[in-house]
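Entry 14. Ran structure prediction on the chain below.
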Amino acid sequence: MSRIEPSPTYMPLVNAYARCFLSERVMLGVIVINLIAVFLEECGFVNVVVSAINVTCTVLFAIEMAVKIYCYGWKEYWSKNWNRFDAVLVIASLPSLVVVFFPEASFLDISIILILRIVRVFRFFRLFKMFPTFEAISHNFWKAMKDSTPVFLCFVLIVLVWSMVTCFFFKGVAPEYFGSPLESIYTAFRLCTIEGWYEIPDDISQLVSPFMGHIVRLYFVIIVILGGVIGISLVNSVFVDAMVSDNNDSLEAKVSSLQEQLDRIEQMLKEKDKQ
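Output, structure tokens:
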């Protein structure tokens, strides 16, 4: 997201204090301070100073939203993804101020306060704006998600079918792993991660005959190879290829441009030789 500059028409209305809220560096500094305060609070260092910093940061974020809406107008402000993200967080955090200034407010229970503490953490995602390549990475990420969705859905469908089949065969032998379709699906995804995959077939093999134990181990080895090795690798390769596709397109465009220039030079040389 490009940095928003206030319209010259409204510049006389924006005083020095308001310009601070339009500065990304200043507001990112506030976010860092708030991050430190939240860190100290979660570590158990809860005192008046830390609470005051949290309240002050929440108020500053609310003022920032109000100043931007006043300077840019609601339509332009809401057209930016980061502004929409900030507005949702600010509005969700405002009830915490009610509890601070009005402790007797009984309509806000502790569960809402815990949710607001979690919401506060999401504001730190704005720090990614400090990295100049974040927008390009974000764009490529969502493009990769879109391009790899069919392959991912196909992989998930295969896992679901395998989970149902395995649940049918092993729910009576190992109900802790395949006792229900949901437990079977969770176990299937555990096996696809490969880490510790041998523990489940070993547990099942101890509950059946030695011959069936070998069959069970072979069955799960095939599943792990197809799902955990080939399946996950295929999904990852499609995702990574889509992530770097923009770079490939840029290189192909440059190569094409160089080829056109070489063709023109070659044509000029042929015309010169004819003369």
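The two ends are 55 Å apart (CA to CA). Will compare against last week's run tomorrow.
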